[in-house]
Amino acid sequence: MNTTMKRKPMINTIYLEELNQETNESHTEATEEKTYTVEDAVETIGFGRFHILLFFIMGSTSIVEATEIMLLAVVSPAIRCEWRLEDWQVAFVTTMVFLGFMVCSLFSGYLADKYGRWKVVFGCFVWGLYFSLLTSFAPTYGWFVFLRAMVGVGVSGHSQGFVLKTEFLPKKYRGFMLPLASFFWLIGSLMVIVLGLAVVPTYGWRWLIRISTIPSIVLIVLFKFIPESARYNVSSGNTTVAIETLQKIAKMNRACLPEGRLVESIVERRGYFLDLLTPSYRRTSLILWYSWFVASFSYYGIILASSELLERNLVCGTQAGIKTNGADGAPCYCSSFGPSDYHTMLISTLGEIAFVPLNIATLNFLGRRLSLTISTLVTGIFFLLLNICTTSFGLTVLLFILRALASTNFNTVYIYTAEVYPTTMRSVGMGFCNSASRIGGMTAPFIAQVLMSKSVASALCPFSVACFICAVAVWFLPIETTGRALQQEK
Q1: Rounded to two decimals, what is the model's pTM?
Q2: pLDDT beyond 50 at 442
Q3: What is the arithmetic mean of pLDDT over 358-374?
Q4: For residue 325, what is the enclosing H or E element?
């Protein structure tokens, strides 16, 4: 009996201890605070009305950039005649635009990582609009070159709009929505060509530039509807502002934020160039810099080469155009675009979107790396085919396909770059890649415009070789970003 009574208290004690432990565990679970990251919030909110607004406003930055670039091709014959310019002087205009673009891309990337994407995009748009308008009043060739270089400084910040757009998109939509930016670039290119056909023969190139600034004015007003990147705000310690932004987006999309508290680490080191060359990113950065160089070199090469081939009637590389001497004996080609030349440019420009469905399919099913490898390889092949003596129709078809391929290369390398770098260095990574691309843009006019007058084959082969080397290099990129969440920090 005594033994039985001793066992009962022991059993009761053990039971109470177990019960107390279970109670403590459940209490801990109840009081444990739920948390979420910006990536969780973006994925939970999903795709909705805000992203459509974002797509149209930030995508329209490509209209302005395309306008400024295509103006170089459309205005070239007019300024060549007005100021009796030689080939190298026409090419020098494009080079100076890209020089301004190259130098300031470095600073715009750094500033966007330090002070925000939105501020850089807005400031660069205002700068570009101001100097673009001044260009239309340029009294001399020297002033024209300087003012266009200042326009290049403004255009350098447009790529941060792409970064801003990427940081708000859920990962499964990036491969579909980002390539569609080609439509906006197409609109800008077509607008300049149509305006060139309608305005230049009657009112001159100055009014063409003035009218082409209208999209910039409209966009500056619309920018107020786009918030600063929530990823940037969190990384810089502005968590409260990031939450407010995410709440507005969720309300607009008729969705809810995840339960709990937004938690991300604050990163003091942001926007440093040397971070691009750490062991984790060194090979990626070096290959991307060359890939951007080739993308720009081939893209602007085909734009300027098509302008030269049409202006000088070099369909089979046999005619060099009509050579006219100015009053001071300086040689120049004074052959303005005719309606048929504008029509050919229109058709070839439509190639910008010809491969967009194929680009979307390859990006999502083959991955970013393999897509870029294939497209650059095929681009090199078609540059070689452009050497074949053909009819005007044949030339139009080749230019059409080359524009489609070059646009595809740019789409893919843009998307990959925005996805591969973390938030703390995404803008500076994009900025340095853009700078590398402008070296290609600076080189292209001296090949496509100056060397073209000597030999068509000599002008086109460098583009092919550069594309072939790029295709091999891209194959060795160490990171595939398809379906990968955007990294917040290294």
Answers
A1: 0.77
A2: yes
A3: 92
A4: strand 323-325
